[in-house]
Amino acid sequence: MDIKRRRMLTEPGDTLLLSKSSMDTAFRFTEWQETTGLTPNRFTADPICSVPLPIYTQVAPGTRQFSSVRPELMWHPLFWLPPRLAGRYNLPSGPGGALEVESTTMWSIRVALELTASGLYSIEDGWIDILATVGIDVENDVDLARIEEWQAGGVDDLLDSIDLDLYLKLETNPNWALQSAMALVEPATHAQWAILADSLMEMVSDSYDPELDTPLHEVRETIAVAASLAGVQLEEVPTDDEEPAGEFWARIELEARDGNYSTVQQFLAGPATEALGWLTLTRDTYWESVEDLQSLQGTPAA
């Protein structure tokens, strides 16, 4: 049987590990919410994985994990992860070897690695349609009704039999993805900071076009949006001064929206220059990690 694949959020050439840009991360977050029907508390927003990941929770007997997901989206492998991949490990990473729950970043890396290595996600061709592998067509109204009934708690032996470990258990070492994720957390985090900072640098630099003489209010709005994104996505970047990243970007956003600037040049010389300097330093500090990781994945640095 031919393997049916579908695209969702990604484009040919996109890896699951590392997002392409700050705006791309924000757009995919919004698109995932609108397309799946999930609320933001049921999926991750960590850009370390280029697509949001659904969060698995305990469910009451007789109910389904993703009953609120639109049935036409239940073809997606992310809604069928086996427990060991859907859940998070308790790791002896705390003080004195105390157990701590696996971080969102480490879990996201682990999921990205396993889905890619197994072929459930193909960099060139997208996601395997899991329901198609058992003969269920989400474009068929009868099959959609069947999925909906199952989501509502109905019994369906075929849907209950779906097991992604048929694809995922390809390695002799069952902990390979966890071990790899533990080694990748720091360099991948640094690489993602650099990529996000680089994309925001472009956004800030392009906020004013001298040929078009971009109006001040448009420049201010662009910088405010960039600051808002940076405040969320780059909040954990360490700084050498006494102003943490989150406070810096909150100040830049406030200046962009409410600061007393009468000309574009005055504004560009103030908050825009500060923002560009911070982003440039972050990008340059961590860019080596981008090159290292992208050489491993066989993709060119941006």
UniProtKB/TrEMBL annotation:
Keywords on record: Plasmid
Domain of life of the native organism: Bacteria
Protein's name in the database: Uncharacterized protein
Native species: Pseudarthrobacter chlorophenolicus (strain ATCC 700700 / DSM 12829 / CIP 107037 / JCM 12360 / KCTC 9906 / NCIMB 13794 / A6)
